[in-house]
Design goal:
Structural class: mainly alpha
Helix content: over 70%
Number of domains: 1
Strand content: under 5%
Distance between the termini: 33 Å
Length: 196
């Protein structure tokens, strides 16, 4: 059970449902309730399918190309650090023009819920704590994101733009800390391997 929580917390930070909420709200504002629900189901299903596929296939792909876990930890840590610093410094998550029929899959499911930070974090956690713990934590976090998005209107009214941005900044700071820890562990692992 401890392994599950060790996976849950970094993935909760990486998903950053509250930070993504203003974008979700702006993309779905004014839609009919039935269309809103369809988008919500589409986004959660897409996010989980992509995340689980990468979680299962990612380590196998890394093995084929000869990338070791410590290499991936350093590269993944640097990527997470850049993502978190970008969010911290600009306060903006990337947003694109979207097709209203596929908005749930792209960009909400991927990359807003399951983006590079979530994919990298899930593979690193599966190497450390096992695929079952990482997969269960990934599923729960995506379901939490879906629940948060289903309450987009009342949550947005309560938090306001300032509250959402503040929580997103705090989440990005935690993600930066996790990134530094991954880089440190990866570098130490590479040094240990080199020293035999």
């Amino acid at each position: 059970m401890n392994d599950f929580w060790m996976c849950f917390v970094p993935l909760f930070v990486a998903v950053d449902a509250v930070g993504v909420l203003p974008i979700f709200h702006s993309l779905t504002r004014g839609l009919e309730v039935t269309h809103h629900r369809r988008i919500l189901r589409q986004s959660v299903a897409t996010a989980f399918i992509v995340g689980l596929t990468f979680l299962l296939a990612g380590p196998f792909i890394l093995e084929i190309v000869g990338v070791q876990v410590h290499d991936f930890m350093v590269a993944g840590g640097i990527l997470l650090l850049l993502i978190s610093l970008s969010d911290l410094l600009t306060g903006q998550k990337r947003q694109r023009m979207v097709d209203p029929m596929t908005i749930g899959a792209v960009p909400i499911g991927v990359p807003l819920i399951t983006g590079p930070a979530v994919l990298t974090t899930s593979v690193l956690l599966s190497n450390e704590y096992g695929i079952f713990a990482a997969g269960a934590a990934l599923l729960l976090n995506i379901l939490i994101a879906g629940a948060v998005f289903s309450l987009a209107n009342p949550i947005s009214r309560i938090l306001g733009d300032a509250g959402s941005k503040t929580l997103s900044k705090v989440a990005s700071l935690f993600l930066a800390s996790i990134a530094v820890m991954l880089i440190r562990k990866g570098v130490m692992g590479i040094i240990r391997q080199a020293m035999g």
